[in-house]
């Protein structure tokens, strides 16, 4: 029985979902004064989880577009609410990204978190559980539950381990913006449940809503996902939350939480409401293009290191939105790839900020300068990620942005043109930032005692560098696995609209 | 073959006799001057009485059929028995929790326990009343005990003030109930729910059959248009809304909740709501369903108003107790939405919500009573929200439980409060009340703000000079942990709560047919 459980590949997903909870459970029994044991347990759990989630990729069948590792557990049977799990080519990489980044996050906060370390680690493991759940659940209502549950650990992470007094405001911003955006989605889900009788995703795919219904339902889903992405009028929470969160919190926020929005569009808005998606595409284009240009320009005039990167994230995620609403395979694959590479690059950039913040406890750009003289390795890594942030050929962002622009060029030329200018402005602020930080004279009147990055930090950067280069040089290994699922998604979207 | 059906009322009879013996016991013992001892012994005896009452109830196996006893004035059915068991269990927990509070506050009257038992007796009778007179008497028994419980701390001006307010407004609302019942009696000649149901059902059906209006002009005037009946029913309805603190009639509850001793507030907030809702369901779902169907829109307006008041007014509160009072007001609004749908699912979700409201309320108020600051002036009981900032330092686990229960009450996703809340929205969507559900869900976000503000105060604020909290006794902490895990368990297996409410509603609607 036991080896049946272990050897059966379909149980892999359940194992991955349950492991963070087991880690949490173990952490509960360790006294909070024993820091090394706590960290060891959390690190080993997350590392083990990452390795196991790689097996998910190994056993993933690339020739099927439908869901794999499907398993169903009863939850509230008489309301038709069941716990059905499964992944396809779209969600696979988001799960891998989550497990990798949580693992790195625990490593990042190895020394920087001093207070309440037990609670910190538990918050991260619980968040990992929720995030894996979001990406692997195949039930709309349970998706909502997981989607919203992520708020609570993140709220606590920003609020308790944040840096300044403004953190409380930031935590509120984060919590209430996201909650307010998504409650209408809850009502729509209930409406869908009332209409269809179930919220099982695979059943919903076979159900066609009328045009008016689709429009209302799409709008309410849009409110929720657009807040998460974030699109322009509701992006205000992101710079606040990013700036005030601890480094690990920013990494997970930029790396995974923003992808919940794009994932939601891919998984639910497109296949369930295809006509409405087409109908509202111009508005999305408008908002994303405005977002790209506006946030890029805003990034130029920021003085806070973290705020610049936060606005960069907004710009890049809006570019992803342009790719998503191109409704063709190239654009969608580009969007997923860009999400992935943004997950690597933005996390790395926040990490880079974290490295200097841990040493000097300031994020103001004006206090830094000439770091290349004293921190050469750091500057090299910074340069690498600055370049990949701009989209230098050979890095992941280039492939992603290229595919997005090619895809959206077919659908909307002018939007593509304007969003491509965003990349140029991106070059401006990234290089300007790199220049200010790395070159010039050392500002010894402000800061003394420079130390280059240590071994731990180097090994945190290493997988991110590898990932970025791998996507940049040979994206086929990633695209291979998502081809079938994306094709199927595009087909579903196009069949219903014809 | 049951000849002596009245034996079904044995639990209540036992409770009544026990209370009388408890009074005698307390009176004899209070000759000795060991006040603390009296309080404890009477308290433990009350727990024993309630436990025995609970066993007697479980012993009465009522499955599908219902009995009407004492000249059809009392009904024994599954709804009543289940609610009584739930209320009894909740009140056992209440007794265990208030003991320390009473000791600290030096409320050394053995009458306190006796009053609680009297109130419980009234509540149990409300649960099984099948007659307007029985209902009135039961409500009065409950309310009169509550008035005294509110005013029991004689040396506190707030407490006396709360008791007086509660008494005046409660008596006023009770008189409305009596007025409505008397008009109803004048029109129909009966006060029995069963008779009323049969009468109106007969009138409606025969009027529809004949179509000959000339014979039935009187019937049409009185029953079908029903101006007088609706007039009477509106009085009864308003009086019951008073008891529930629904929005335009909620103003008493804040003052009363805040002024009375916390142990009494615990009872006011948690225990009686379910019973009053059962009475509402018995009157308006079975006896007068044809009339109340017309009122649905007005009930919904009241419900939305209640939610709005509870959500917005709660934002400005500085005291934990009044915040919880507003929170309970907004919860009553959600239940009223479910009540107003008039469907089977609506009733089911109503009972789900009320059960969870009681369990979550039990958790939150137990923790609230446990919060005892290390003050020199030990009787200070009105807790400011700002005081909570030191809770996570002095008792981290308690702060964690507190915030988890708060998030559950707020209806945030991974908690069971979310499940019952979406039940409410689901039934309101099923009867196409889209606007209501949108407004109430937005209000629920607003009310989330004040719940997470407590979480913020507990965890985010670094108070260096805060006052620490007293440690909790071990047996109390076990009780709190059990309650907490029960809440968590209900999320993993919510079928439990749904199935009970499903069975209740099924049996209830079967008997209504």
Commentary on this structure:
Chain A: This is NADH-ubiquinone oxidoreductase chain 4. Chain A: It is found in: Membrane; Mitochondrion membrane. Chain A: Its main location: membrane. Chain A: Residues 139-418 form the NADH:quinone oxidoreductase/Mrp antiporter transmembrane domain. The complex is a heterodimer of chains A (498) and B (513). Chain A is mainly alpha-helical and 498 residues long. Chain A has two domains: 1-192, no CATH class; 273-498, no CATH class. Chain A has 22 helices and two strands. Chain A has helices at residues 2-7, 12-28, 35-58, 89-112, 117-136, 140-149, 151-161, 167-196, 201-204, 211-228, 237-244, 247-257, 259-272, 274-300, 305-324, 329-360, 371-374, 376-390, 396-411, 413-438, 455-473, 476-497; strands at 68-76, 81-87. In chain A, a hairpin with a 4-residue loop joins strand 1 and strand 2. In chain A, helix 4 (89-112) crosses helix 22 (476-497) and helix 11 (237-244) packs across helix 15. The relative contact order of chain A is 0.10. The model of chain A has no long low-confidence stretch (mean pLDDT 88). Chain B has 513 residues and is mostly helical. Chain B has a domain at 339-513. In chain B, 76% of the residues lie in helices and 1% in strands. Chain B is built from 22 helices and two strands. Chain B has helices at 10-29, 35-59, 78-105, 111-127, 132-150, 157-188, 193-210, 217-224, 227-244, 251-259, 262-270, 272-287, 289-292, 296-314, 320-341, 344-370, 391-394, 396-410, 416-430, 434-459, 474-492, 495-512, and strands at residues 67-69, 74-76. Chain B has a two-stranded antiparallel ribbon. In chain B, helix 1 (10-29) runs antiparallel to helix 4. The interface between A and B is medium-sized, with 35 and 31 residues.
């Amino acid at each position: 029985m036991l080896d049946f459980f272990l050897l059966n590949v379909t149980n892999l997903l359940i194992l991955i979902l349950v492991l963070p909870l087991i880690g949490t459970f173990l952490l509960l029994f360790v006294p909070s004064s024993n820091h090394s044991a706590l960290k060891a347990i959390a690190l080993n759990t997350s590392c083990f989880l990452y390795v196991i989630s790689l097996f998910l990729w190994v056993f993933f069948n690339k020739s099927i577009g439908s869901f794999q590792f499907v398993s169903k557990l009863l939850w509230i049977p008489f309301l038709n609410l069941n716990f059905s799990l499964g992944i396809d080519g779209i969600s696979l990489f988001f799960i891998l990204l989550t497990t990798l980044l949580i693992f790195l996050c625990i490593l990042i906060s190895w020394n920087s978190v001093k207070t309440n370390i037990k609670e910190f680690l538990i918050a991260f493991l619980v968040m990992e559980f929720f995030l894996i759940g979001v990406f692997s659940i195949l039930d709309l209502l349970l998706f909502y539950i997981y989607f919203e549950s992520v708020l609570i650990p993140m709220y606590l992470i920003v609020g308790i381990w944040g840096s300044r007094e403004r953190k409380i405001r930031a935590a509120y911003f984060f919590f209430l913006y996201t909650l307010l955006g998504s409650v209408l989605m809850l009502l729509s889900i209930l409406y869908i449940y009332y209409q269809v009788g179930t919220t099982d995703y695979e059943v919903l795919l076979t159900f066609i809503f009328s045009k008016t219904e689709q429009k209302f339902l799409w709008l309410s889903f849009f409110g929720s996902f657009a807040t998460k992405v974030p699109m322009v009028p509701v992006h205000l929470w992101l710079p606040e939350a990013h700036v005030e969160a601890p480094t690990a919190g920013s990494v997970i926020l930029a790396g995974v939480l923003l992808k919940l929005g794009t994932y939601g569009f891919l998984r639910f808005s497109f296949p369930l409401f295809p006509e409405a998606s087409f109908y509202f595409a111009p508005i999305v284009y408008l908002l994303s293009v405005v977002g790209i240009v506006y946030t890029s320009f805003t990034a130029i005039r920021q003085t806070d290191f973290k705020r610049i990167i936060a606005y960069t994230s907004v710009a890049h995620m809006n570019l992803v939105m342009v790719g998503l609403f191109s409704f063709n395979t190239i654009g969608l694959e580009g969007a997923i790839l860009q999400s992935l590479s943004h997950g690597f690059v933005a996390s790395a950039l926040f990490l880079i900020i974290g490295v200097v913040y841990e040493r000097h406890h300031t994020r103001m750009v004006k206090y830094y300068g000439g770091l290349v003289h004293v921190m050469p390795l750091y500057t090299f890594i910074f340069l690498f990620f600055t370049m990949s942030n701009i989209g230098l050929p050979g890095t992941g962002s280039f492939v992603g942005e290229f595919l997005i622009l090619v895809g959206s060029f077919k659908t909307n030329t002018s939007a593509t043109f304007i969003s491509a200018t965003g990349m140029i402005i991106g070059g401006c602020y990234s290089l300007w930032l790199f220049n200010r930080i790395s070159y010039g004279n050392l500002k010894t009147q402000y800061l003394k005692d420079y130390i280059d990055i240590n071994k731990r930090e180097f090994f945190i950067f290493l997988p991110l560098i590898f990932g970025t280069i791998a996507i940049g040089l040979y994206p086929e290994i990633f695209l291979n696995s998502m081809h079938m699922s994306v094709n199927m998604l595009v087909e579903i979207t196009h069949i219903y609209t014809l | 073959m049951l000849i002596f059906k009245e034996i079904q009322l044995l639990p209540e009879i036992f409770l009544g006799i026990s209370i009388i013996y408890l009074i005698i016991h307390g009176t004899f013992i209070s000759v000795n001057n060991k006040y603390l001892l009296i309080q404890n012994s009477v308290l433990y005896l009350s727990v024993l009485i309630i436990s025995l009452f609970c066993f007697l109830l479980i012993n009465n196996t009522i499955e599908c059929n219902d009995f009407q006893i004492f000249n059809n004035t009392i009904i024994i059915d599954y709804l009543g028995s289940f609610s009584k068991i739930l209320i009894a269990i909740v009140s056992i927990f209440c007794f265990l929790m208030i003991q320390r509070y009473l000791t600290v506050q030096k409320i050394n009257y053995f009458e306190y326990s006796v009053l609680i038992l009297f109130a419980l007796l009234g509540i149990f009778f409300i649960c099984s009343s099948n007659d307007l007179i029985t209902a009135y008497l039961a409500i009065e028994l409950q309310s009169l005990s509550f008035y005294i419980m509110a005013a029991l701390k004689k040396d506190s001006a707030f407490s006396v003030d709360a008791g007086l307010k509660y008494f005046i407004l409660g008596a006023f609302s009770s008189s409305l109930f009596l007025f409505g019942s008397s008009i109803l009696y004048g029109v129909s000649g009966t006060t029995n729910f069963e008779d009323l149901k049969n009468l109106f059902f007969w009138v409606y059906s025969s009027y529809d059959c004949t179509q000959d209006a000339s014979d039935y002009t009187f019937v049409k005037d009185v029953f079908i248009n029903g101006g007088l009946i609706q007039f009477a029913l509106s009085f009864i309805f308003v009086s019951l809304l008073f008891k529930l603190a629904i929005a335009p009639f909620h103003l008493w509850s804040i003052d009363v909740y805040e002024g009375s001793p916390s142990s009494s507030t615990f009872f006011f907030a948690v225990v009686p709501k379910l019973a009053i809702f059962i009475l509402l369901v018995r009157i308006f779902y079975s006896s007068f369903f044809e009339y109340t169907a017309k009122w649905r829109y007005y009930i919904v307006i009241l419900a939305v108003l209640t939610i709005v008041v509870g959500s917005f007014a709660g934002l400005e509160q500085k005291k934990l107790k009044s915040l919880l009072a507003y929170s309970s007001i907004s919860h009553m609004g959600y239940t009223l939405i479910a009540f107003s749908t008039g469907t089977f699912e609506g009733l089911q979700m109503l009972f789900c919500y009320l059960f969870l409201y009681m369990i979550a309320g039990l958790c939150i108020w137990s923790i609230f009573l446990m919060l005892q600051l290390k003050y020199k002036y030990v009787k200070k009981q009105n807790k400011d929200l700002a005081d909570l900032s030191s809770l996570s330092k002095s008792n981290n686990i308690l702060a964690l439980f507190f915030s988890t229960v708060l998030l559950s009450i707020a209806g945030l996703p991974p908690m069971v409060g979310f499940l019952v809340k979406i039940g409410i929205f689901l039934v309101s969507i099923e009867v196409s009340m889209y606007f209501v559900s949108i407004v109430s869900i937005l209000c629920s976000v607003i009310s989330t703000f004040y719940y997470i503000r407590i979480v913020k105060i507990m965890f985010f604020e670094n108070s260096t000079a805060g006052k620490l909290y007293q440690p909790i006794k071990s047996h109390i902490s076990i009780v709190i942990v059990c309650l907490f895990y029960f809440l968590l368990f209900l999320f993993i297996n919510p079928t439990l709560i749904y199935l009970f409410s499903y069975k209740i509603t099924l049996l209830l609607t079967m008997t209504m047919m």
